Amino acid sequence: MSIRPTLLLGAAAMALVPLAAIAQSDTPTGGSTNQSPLSQTPLAEDSTGDETAGASPVTQAQELPQVGADWPFWGGDAQATRYSPLDQITPENVGQLERAYVYHTGDMPEGTAEGKYSPEITPLKVGDDILTCSAMNMLISFDAATGEENWRYDPGVPNDAIPYGATCRGVAVWTDPEASEGDTCATRLIEATLDAKIISLDAATGVPCEDFGENGTIDLWQDLGERVPGWYAVTAPPTIVRGVIVTGAQVKDGQAEDAPSGVIRGFDARTGELAWAWDMGAPEQNRDGPPEGEVYTRGTPNMWTTAVADEELGYVYLPMGNSSVDYYGSNRSEAENEFSTALVAIDATTGEVAWNFQTVYRDVWDYDLGSQPTLVDFPQDGDTVPAIILPSKQGDIYVLDRETGESLHPVEENPVPTRGEIEPEYISPTQPASSYHQIRFEPLQERDMYGMSPIDQMFCRIAFRRANYEGFFQPPTADAPFIQYPGYNGGSDWGSVAVDTDRGIIVANYNNIPNYNRMIPQEETDWPIITDGGASGEGAGGNAPQEGAPWSIRINAGWRAPFTGMPCTQPPYGGIRAIDLETGETIWDRPLGTARRNGPFGVPSRLPLTIGTPNNGGSVVTAGGLIFIAAATDNLIRAIDIETGETLWQDVLPAGGQANPLAFEADGRQFIMIAPGGHHFMGTGVSDAIIAYALPE
Amino acid sequence: MSTSTNSSMPQRAGKIAVIVLAAVLAVIGAILLGGGAYLIILGGSWYYALAGIALIASGVLLFRFSVVAVAVYTALWLATLFWTLWEVQFDWWAWVPRMVAPSVLLILVLLCLPAITTRRPAARSV
Predict the structure, then answer these.
(1) Which residues of A touch B28 (CB under 8 A)?
(2) Where do the Pyrrolo-quinoline quinone repeat domain residues begin and end (chain A) (predicted)?
(3) Is B40 inside a domain boundary?
(4) Residue B62 lies in a domain
(5) Who's near B125: CB < 8 A, 6+ residues apart?
(6) Which residues from chain A sit within 8 angstroms of residue B88, using beta carbons?
(7) Structurally, how many domains does chain A consist of?
(8) Crossing angle of the two packed helices B101-111 and B9-41, in degrees rounded to 10
(9) What is the distance between the alpha carbons of residues A580 and A587, in angstroms, rounded to a whole number?
């Protein structure tokens, strides 16, 4: 017996779901029909329908804007496929692609922000306008066809609010179903900021929406406890579902157990009032906010990346990260153990957990879920199942039923190589893996060590032999360094995957880089936790004090050799592949990124050879049959033939393209746009440019 | 090139270059022998220690202006080539740390040949 009929009855009774959604849900089920014991009833027993009568909250499914001429969501469409139906640019004519215009946001690092910029911006295109944020959260509207500025709004985010980096991956747009066209704030531009505010502006004029919070702003620091700038910052666009703005935040990694809560909050998109809060430490008590004088449970896993929502089902899917102390877990709560590094589905009308799917048991590797999941109608047994594609940093790609959270393919349960000596009781004896698709490579061997000569290669071999490493999921150790492979940058990170829903192809770029870490007893370190706000430049790399845990950790992100600065492991360090959506089989796979900007001692080699570099930022796929992606450290944007994987066109960017591109149409012309802001940790420079490419007129 | 018996400027420069290269080979050899011995103790590859010994030997021989230095280094280079083939087959990026620097040194060692063959007696005095 499926749970779907129950769901359907409930939904129909509440009259909250449009007919289209019911038709869509009325498909044969695949896989197991048993609900996970972790799951709760997807729909609240008591009717929320009452609240819709005349009251402000929007609980009905809205009609959502479509991708095509517009790019109305961070992930392109509401499903986050990053697939554009535009086909003016094709493999045959892409060679003629040229810059149509370059817009400059004017937001460049000043003073203490120097060396901390990693903007990672993907603008939206709605109507005639590009709507975007800048690295420090300035909101800007400019003409999509010409690059001419319409308006800008500066929320005045201070430098000390910068967490790991000055990042604003994107913004969201919401149209009020009750407003008439032309009303102020009928369509709103919504941004969550580094200094933890949500700002709502009239998308047409840039004027703050007065009915939202206080003069168009709400303060997310409320109910979090002590305000430490940079410890709680939003870098991802919020997700809006059923008129509820849902956001988590980046909580500074590795500093202390006593860190701000990872609470997920939903706010009424019209008024900014708290609709619900999901505090895994006290879900019932704090659903409507903590009682007077209390705060949300501190140090719990957060969501720094972007969620996706199913408007018709009313679920928002949260890719959760890890607890604030990433590499030690014995003092975590049961709730933390249940929800860290898990995809959690929340019913956006109630704030209750519908189901969760954990990708790492008892994560002590900082394997946060970094990618925004993608909603697809997954082909199975000649029909389709409403599914969600979930990429992970370990390189697993899961396909889950989005109503139940059940995997559509068997989930492997693999024994770990060792449970280590630091907390063997805590370390899980098994870990899950996807049988659908894995972007994962063979465990490292001594012969995989690299260098510019036999000398530095030998030192990397010595480092390899000195380290504890028994393979995938090697737990942290203190007697010697340990190798974590893949490292915390993936597999898949925030760039996420793109899905060509016409051809049935997943396009995934990935990293192939280990980290070289060592646990150090807390009493032997006097590393200060960062309380003066902002990034020390360490961020997720370097030293993490982990105050409150018995161990600190020294992290060598990307395992770079001292002196030469070169990676200790051999290339490729990153690649891109096309995967058959239905079977999960690899269609093609190739390294991504040339060696032109890489070399020993940080000196660019200028070699045009495709080596496969570290990359961050995703792709956009167009119906014309092209993949547009930058992401790599070579500061190139390229067009790749989706059928063959061949690069057909490229252009040199002013800084690293660590940002997802977008596609849109304006004045009958198809544009490809990217904001190559560079990335401080990846050493790819900094730029305030937003570049629009098109075919010659 | 003519093999004039007069100690001309080019010949002196050639001799200095040979001595510098001999020192470079010996220093690299010492580093590889030291690190390679530690790597063997850790259970790793024997290549580096053995290559270190061969490099020290060719350095010392080159310092003495012995033609055998060229033979020893060429043998090391060939051994390195076969070791690379054995260890990483045709994974070309993996050839970079293994073969590029040794090949540059091979060219330099071969370039020493004229200087060594013209003034063999000089080696005796060392």
Answers:
(1) 455
(2) 71-672
(3) yes
(4) yes
(5) none
(6) 447
(7) 1
(8) 150
(9) 6
When CB atoms are compared, the residue of B35, B88, B100 closest to A458 is B35
Known active-site residue A667: no
Give the A:B interface size as CB pairs under 8 Å.
60
For residue A452, list chain B residues with Cβ-Cβ distance below 8 A.
Answer: 96-97, 100-101
3 state SS of A679: coil
In a domain, residue A50? The reply is no
On whether residue A181 sits in a domain, the answer given is yes
Q: Do B45 and A453 touch (CB under 8 A)?
A: no
In a domain, residue A30? The reply is yes
Question: What is the model's pLDDT at position B46?
Answer: 98
Q: A74-133: per-residue pLDDT in tens?
A: 999 999 999 999 999 999 999 999 999 999 999 999 999 999 999 999 999 999 999 999
Beta pairing class for A636-641 and A647-652: antiparallel
Contacts of B86 in chain A (CB under 8 A): none
Prior bond of A572 cis (ω within 30°): yes
Q: Would you give the DSSP letter of residue A405?
A: -
Angstrom distances, CA of residue A350 to CA of A384, A386, A437, A491:
28, 22, 34, 33
pLDDT at site A14: 38
From A223, A347, A366, A396, active-site residue: A366
Residue B1 placed within a domain:
no
Q: Cβ B44–A446 below 8 Å, yes or no?
A: yes
* Domain carrying residue A82: 4-45+56-694
Least Cα separation, residue A560 to chain B (angstroms): 15
Output the six-digit token pair for A426. Answer: 């805590």
CB A220 within 8 A of CB A302: no
DSSP 8-state class, residue A66: P
- In sequence order, the 6+-apart residues with CB closer than 8 A to the CB of A536 are A530
Contact A636, A653 (CB under 8 A): yes
pLDDT tens per residue across all 126 residues of chain B = 444 445 577 788 889 999 999 999 999 999 999 999 999 999 999 999 999 999 999 999 999 999 999 999 999 999 999 999 999 999 999 999 999 999 999 999 999 999 988 754 444 444
Domain of A229, CATH number, reads 2.140.10.10
Could you tell me which of A354, A349, A282 has the C-alpha nearest to residue A318?
A354
Q: For residue A466, which residues of chain B lie inside 8 Å, CB to CB?
A: 42
Which segments in chain A show pLDDT lower than 50?
A: 1-55, 532-540
* Smallest Cα distance from B13 to chain A, Å: 27
**Contact check, Cβ <8 Å, B87/A452:** no
Task: Please count the CA atoms within 13 angstroms of the CA of A269 that sit on its side-chain side.
Answer: 30
Q: Å from B67 to nearest chain A CA? A: 25
The C-alpha of B97 sits at a distance from chain A's nearest C-alpha, in angstroms, of 4
Among the listed residues A612, A606, A631, the one whose alpha carbon sits nearest the alpha carbon of residue A571: A612
Q: Among all residues of chain B, which has the CA nearest to that of A612?
A: B93
**Token code pair at residue A557:** 């992100």
Q: Which residue of A has its CA nearest to B80?
A: A454
Nearest-Cα distance to chain B for A587, in Å, is 22
Residue B94 lies in a domain: yes
The domain total for chain B is: 1
* A284 dihedral zone (left: phi>0; alpha: psi -120 to 50; beta): alpha
CA nearest to B51 within chain A: A454
Residue ranges making up the domain that contains B90: 10-117
Binary contact (A455, B44; C-beta < 8 A)? no
**CB contact B27 to A (< 8 Å):** no
In a domain, A51, yes or no: no
Residues of chain B with C-beta less than 8 angstroms from the C-beta of A572: 93
Angle at A518 between CA A515 and CA A522, to 5 degrees: 140
* pLDDT given at position A54: 41
Candidate from A446, A454, A464 with C-beta closest to B101: A454
